[in-house]
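Side project, low priority. Logging it here so it doesn't get lost.
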Amino acid sequence: MSRIARLLAAAAAAAAAPLVAQGYQCQLLANVDQHAPYSGMWGYVAPNGKEYALLGTTTGIAVIDCTNGSAPVERGYFPWASSQWREVRTYGTYAYVTTEAAAGFLVLDLTNPDAPTSLGIVGAANHGNAHNIGVDMGTGRIYIVGTNNGVAVYDGAANPANPPFLGFAAPSGNNNYFHDLTIENGIGYGAMIYTGIFRLWNMNTWPPTTISDSLTPSAFCHNAWPTTNSNITVTTDERDGSLLRFYDTTNKAAPVPISQMTMDPRTIPHNAYIIGNIAHVAWYTEGYQAVDFSDPTTPIVVASYDTWPGASGGFNGAWGCFPFLPSGNVYISDRATGLYVLKPSFTDLAIAHAPLADTTQEDAPYSVVANLTSSHPVQTVTLRYKLNGGAEQSVAMQPTLVPGQWSGQIPAQDAVTQVEYHIDAVDAKAARRSPRIGENRFLVGTAVTRWSDDFETSVGWTSGGTASDWQLGQPRGRAGFSNSFGWQDPLVATSGATVRGNDLGGTTFNGAYANNQNSFLQSPSIPTNGRQGLRLRFRRFLSVVTGDVGRVLVNGTAVWSSTGSVYDTEWQWIDYDVSSILNTASNAVIRFELTTNASNAAGGWQIDDVALVTLHDASPATAYGVGTPGTGALVPTVGVAAAAVLGTTVQIQGQGLLGNSLAVLALNVQATNAPALGLQLLVEPVGAALLTAATSVGGAAAWPFAVPNTPALDNIYLYAQAFGLDGGAPGGLLSASAGLRFRSCVSAP
């Protein structure tokens, strides 16, 4: 099972769907292994609703009754032309079978699928072999692709038992070779494997005409399948380390890549088919993967079943997939072990949550509220969080009085604390997560950006060195395979449209960095303005093979260097403390380097949103308790002019006191709430420091407080209360402010 599938399974261990060791939210109903080895497959639903699998093998095609998914029965087997490649599709009550080893295609009559019959070979005079079949259900045209003579077209509507030949929709040759073709609403979705093109074809012309061509991530497009409204299309590339990619095909003349993903950087997604917002994928060594793209920018696996017990990578495992069954079952053909009848468990469970924002509040827990909707009873909702990258902790969320709403709390934290969290929810069918990938993040404390560049405009960066391929532009999402792992580049920037990186994969480029390279990207000289505690932050998408090295330097000092291989599959948050380098420096120079050897290559650096920031633990002072009025019923107030930073003197200020009188400030590390002298004492008198000051004619007073520059005194809460000598107070002696709580800290913005 793949790494990501394991993580997903662990995150939803309480899911109620029936599971076995190899499945995540997916149940194995049956496995049929009678004619090994195997190849492609399809399914057939008879007019009476019975369900059948059409399983390709090396020596023929099997028709298997799977109406009872737990007890399949083979109804017929038709040997024909031994080959490891065999595919099958249906039209009406007929099945059409192709192979690379023989001319024409085989027609099966499924009028009585419990006793299927062979009607023989059609089209042997037109082509000597074929790879696959696409059927236009609207017109009945049958497109035989991957033949030695081009794309052969037959008219299934005219005679499905013996379709007449209409001609070739495309000529022969690798530049015209279609490996797979799907037709929906008059548009052909073609996988042109040898040119790496995903082609949209106008099927309403003869011959069909090209609407658009799009290069797929690994330039080896194996299959393409659209949604029923044709607005989203999924593609696969049949190369090691390749990706599943989703395109927005609303504008057929200009498809737009939306997202891409891998289960494991060594593996190959083979065939993908869409029902609703789920792509059902036969992913070779990773078996069956059900990918939810309801948010097409963040596809996620919601069910899986691993049919291959061996290592990840290569062409073993799941070849074919058929999810279009009324029962909700899914068929998978595994090359070694045959037909799998699976029952994935899907849910419409949705989690709506507004991520928490940065805060300086340290006193109370941080409430995480989520609104859940589902057609099935919600069973558990769990809040999982990490503090400063530490171990994951969990809190069981509880339903509130609002229908569908759940709440949990992250304990209050002292600044500076970085909090990452997500929500796991499980209903009676399956599990879901928010956010779909990654973590929500918020800072307890204050982050101040002192300098930044999002690469949308030039601010003086330079690049150079030996064989440098640093570029500024839009990322292209290219992918490749090197040194036993697949690498990929991002499809989009983290903000804006542009990034800086090695070989961004545009026209005449392939996304892979150059060999024998010793190159750099360097920032302009950035004034530090004497700022202390600077940190370097940026977003990174990096892939380097073992033996090649990426480095980050500040003022010539290395702050990070890669060891071994690095294969990012999503944008990473990077944060380095560079204060030891920059505290005494007047300027900062940021440098990214790449050094490569003569063999192998990957995607290299792609960088966005570079910034120098400072983090501060100062928190706002807060009032507590109730003051006592003086003359004119005016209640004094007390506040601090600035944060109580270690080593500084802070002014504690009083207002609303009796003018031209005497004021006293009580200061302690403990609070109280006790009546005395006609007022409420809010600062513990035992051990309190008492500071006096004369009030101005307007009733103001100030008390300077020197905060010791002692690290052990950081994060100490202090309590203050101002008193004014005032005969107009209720007790005839003193007015008093409410209490003030403030905290010592290391730094403030």
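Brief comment: Residues 1-21 have pLDDT under 50 and may be disordered.
Revisit when time allows.
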